[in-house]
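Reading a protein record of the kind used here takes only a little practice. These numbers are not coordinates but entries in a learned vocabulary of local backbone shapes. Here is one such record, which you should read through line by line.
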Amino acid sequence: MVFDGFFVYHLVQELNTQLEKARLEKIYQTNEMSFVFVFYLRGQRRFMNLNLSSHNFGAYLTKKKDESTFNSQFLISLKRNLEGAILQNVSQYQTDRVMIFNFIMNDFIDGSVSKQLVFEAMGRHSNLLITKDELIVDTFKKMFFAEGRQLIPQAKFEFFPTTKLPFLAIDYSKIFSYKDIIDQYMGVSPILAKYLIEHNIQIPDIKINPTKQIGSKKSYVFDIFDQKEEKKYYCTISKLMDDQDIEQKVSVS
């Protein structure tokens, strides 16, 4: 699956339509790298898988109810900080592969409290952080460095530093190859950059159509594949990701 900033751009919109203002009822963990968030909204429970594994990372809605078989210190922290909170919305950091789940919960002492669950969907560098008032409350992966970005509780939260621009308005007068797009704009994968060079189009003008190429099992948020190849289309990005997840589990077993 090509999980780039454009993919996240539309995934965030999809999650907002289904989860905005929902109450986070329960969190459980299915394996070392995967969590399930159970939301309740207008009489319905909605399940969101969040996977940190390097080969299958992402967040998506699912109707499957995997058994809760795993426990960890970070799961306890997630439960303590977020269960019972209302999800105000889901946002994206600029156009990067970073999703921010913005929660509000009532504290008996402090009243209304805002917290964020930050999902950095970066392949083997993927991470999940709980933040409050721009400080890290807890983080799935903890790292301490002599200088620069720290990933430990009570450290100031900072996004990955970058000099790249958001991809919302590409200046083609400064573009001479698809690599120029990758180097200059945040969240653009090679396959998307090549498409942009060929069509000279602005990214927000691309209409999505979640697609899987049957032979290679590659997938993307719109049909970017060879027209001669057999493909399968999905009505939502989550259904595409859910189907991909099933195939991953079958291949592993």
